[in-house]
Amino acid sequence: MNRLGPAAPMPSDAVMARLVAGLRGDAAQPLYLRLAAGLRGLIEAGELRGGEAMPSERELVRATGLSRVTVRKATEELCREGLLARRHGAGSFVTRQIDQPLSVLVGFSEDMQRRGATVSSRILQRLVCAPDPADMLKLGLSPNDLVFRLARVRLSDGEPLAIETAIVPADAINPETMGESLYEALRRSGHMPVRALQRLRAAIANAQEAQLLGVPVGSPILHIERRAFLANGRPIEVTTSSYRGDRYDFIAELTLEP
Question: Does residue 172 lie in a domain region?
Answer without folding.
Answer: yes
